[in-house]
Amino acid sequence: MSVAHDVGVTGVGVLQVVVIGIGGLVLLGLMRKVRARIEGRVGAPVLQPLRDVRKLMRKERLRPEFASWIFPLAPVVLVATVTVAALMTPLITTHPPLAGGSDLFVVVYLLLLGSTLVALAGLDTGTAFGGMGSSRALTIGALAEPALLVTILALSVSSHSSNFPVIVRATLADPAVIISPARLFALAALLIVIIAESGRLPVDNPATHLELTMIKEAMILEYSGPDLALVTLGEAMRLALLLGVLVNLSLPWGVASSTSVGALAIGTIVLCAKVAAVASALSFVEVFLAKLRLFRLPELLAGAFVLALLGVVSGVVTK
Question: d(Cα 97, Cα 189) in Å, to the nearest integer?
């Protein structure tokens, strides 16, 4: 029985990483396709990001002459940290391989480690645009981090734990907690933070090619070949993971409670459907949004902090 359980846990880990890896790239293609259709364009195929990554892996790797070891290490760390976070997160099942260490604080800081190293790599190139994009990204991260930490506290109040699988299992056992003021405030704050951290509108425009307005893209202008492929894969995995966290905290139904083949199949299908629906809705809304000025971003992220704080207060008062 223990051997079968071990095989199940290993299979869950492989499945979640594959779903986040391939699904993240497909998710990027889906969001671009939805936005193109709404704007009246045909748009690239949904699988285009997969083809782009495959093409980049075959190209030559070029690096700045005076870049240090940080520049080649950043893409590897980005993919590695998201992979470990995927092994900790209850995406398909409430029993992820690293459930014992699946603390929301750990997951958050793993993701921040990868994005921070990419920002340092942008500074490491010594170019003006790379430094500008990195400074802006680090500024946004510094503003979003307090809201994110308070959001985790708000999510932890109802289940008396910051362990992610425990929170999801507690939500499945008591679905009424989803419509509680504490959870609604926390989820609203989490959505704003996810938009900021993933570089979506109105914080950043992922489709822009104007250097003076780029944030995420400005940091990776010097990457090419396999390095750029890893950065693209890591950012896609990160977006898919963050949206997976959001949907499983807001709509946890469909998450498997075991590691059986049937339960995992249903969990995978439900997760993909929920993430695709949320991503499509975000793409739809982005068409009608304009990028905020950089000096207006603190107001948006301060609003997220206030929402998270209201979630903590509501959870403590109504507990």
Answer: 28
Block residue for tokens 């398909």: 92
How does DSSP classify residue 100? Answer: G
Nearest to 87 by CA among 23, 168, 15: 15
Q: Which residue has the tokens 């976070």?
A: 85
Count of C-beta atoms within a 10 Å radius of residue 22: 17
- In the numeric block, the tokens 């003076």 are attached to 212
Looking at residue 210, what is its pLDDT? 65
Q: How far is CA 172 from CA 94, 105, 157, 165, 167, in A?
A: 10, 21, 16, 11, 9
Number of neighbours of residue 21 by Cβ within 10 angstroms: 20
> Of 113, 122, 28, nearest to 70 (Cα)?
122
Tens-digit pLDDT profile for residues 163-214: 889 999 989 988 888 889 999 999 999 999 999 988 888 888 777 766 666 7
What pLDDT is attached to residue 319? 67
State yes or no: pLDDT of 2 exceeds 80. no
| Residues ≥6 apart with Cβ < 8 Å to 185 | 154, 307, 308, 310, 311, 314
Distance CA 317, CA 319 (A): 6
d(CA 163, CA 100): 8
- Dihedral pair phi/psi, residue 259, rounded to 5°: -110, 25
Of 169, 168, 310, nearest in space to 244 by CA = 168
Quick: pLDDT tens for 24-46: 999 999 999 999 999 899 989 99
Q: How do residues 233-252 score in pLDDT, each as one tens digit?
A: 999 999 999 999 999 999 89
Cβ-based burial of 62 (10 A; exposed 0-12, middle 13-18, buried ≥19):
exposed
Task: Name the residue type at position 264.
Answer: L
